[in-house]
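$ ./design --mode recover --in tokens.txt
reading tokens...
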């Protein structure tokens, strides 16, 4: 019996919906443990301890609002779709564009002609064609087997958001990672004293078993997520600094010099824009969208462009 791997990939969407429920459950239990059980009651004590409780609760809510805002922007925002019947505007763009091809992402000979390299040898066209979508593929565009479509500047398909991470929601995804890491780290630190006292309180029965279990589980969950997210944050900072996506890592290793790496400042601006006031929000200014084509995911300057 033949197994359709692409149908199995599409089944990951179902898993993604459970992941959304899991995220909601973790947020709810963290809120209950930090605000309701641990630091909310401290507001009535007065003095320095009460001020500390207010500070923790305010920061907790700020980070929670930001991570949820960024999360929903990743979930509901289109990561970047290829316009129907898209074609490069000029031959120069074809020569300067880049896109790795696979067996299912072949070049359509009737659409793009081969070019000659500087040594006179024939070179494969760098703008691809997706045989599944029956459409041309802009530079850095890849076909997602889960979403069953091509995604502009695709980074990866994330089951946690039931969506691809691409050109138009990559900033929101990075901010979601950052704020979630900060939130889980903060939860771990503010629950640490309660975790240390867990066994003594359980032995003396000074706190209800249910509340003890909630605090214990919340601490362990937030610690695990914080450590895991630290790895992802460091990885994506490295990718951002070199203007590389997760699916381009192997392609970059084969290259002598990664042509999309324009320097850390310009690489950062191709994701976060130039408006400093909006860097920490999942928003982009109209001016940046008009002036930085990479934010739209169809055109990307290369090292040769910047040196010209």
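writing sequence...
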């Amino acid at each position: 019996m033949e197994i359709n791997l692409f149908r199995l990939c599409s089944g990951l969407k179902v898993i993604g919906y459970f992941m959304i429920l899991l995220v909601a459950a973790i947020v709810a239990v963290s809120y209950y443990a930090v605000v309701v059980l641990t630091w909310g009651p401290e507001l009535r004590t007065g003095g320095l301890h009460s001020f500390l409780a207010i500070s923790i609760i305010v920061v907790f809510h700020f980070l929670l609002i930001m991570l949820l805002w960024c999360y929903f922007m990743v979930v509901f925002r289109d990561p970047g779709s290829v316009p129907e019947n898209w074609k490069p505007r000029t031959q120069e763009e074809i020569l300067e564009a880049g896109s790795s091809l696979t067996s299912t992402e072949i070049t359509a000979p009737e659409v793009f002609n081969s070019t000659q390299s500087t040594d006179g040898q024939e070179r494969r066209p760098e703008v691809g064609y997706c045989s599944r979508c029956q459409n041309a593929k802009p530079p850095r565009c890849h076909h997602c087997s889960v979403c069953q479509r091509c995604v502009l500047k695709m980074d990866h398909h994330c089951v946690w958001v039931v969506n691809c991470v691409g050109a138009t929601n990559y900033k929101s995804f990075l901010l979601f990672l950052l704020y979630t890491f900060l939130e889980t780290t903060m939860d771990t630190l503010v629950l640490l004293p309660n975790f240390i006292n867990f066994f003594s309180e359980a032995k003396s029965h000074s706190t209800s078993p249910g509340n003890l279990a909630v605090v214990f589980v919340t601490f362990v969950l937030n610690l695990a997520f914080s450590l895991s997210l630290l790895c992802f944050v460091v990885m994506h900072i490295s990718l951002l600094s070199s203007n590389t996506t997760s699916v381009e890592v192997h392609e970059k290793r084969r290259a002598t010099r990664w042509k999309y790496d324009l320097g850390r400042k310009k690489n950062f601006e191709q994701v976060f824009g130039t408006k400093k006031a909006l860097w920490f929000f999942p928003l982009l200014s109209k001016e940046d969208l008009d002036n930085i084509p990479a934010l739209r995911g169809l055109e990307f300057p290369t090292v040769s462009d910047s040196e010209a």
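exit 0
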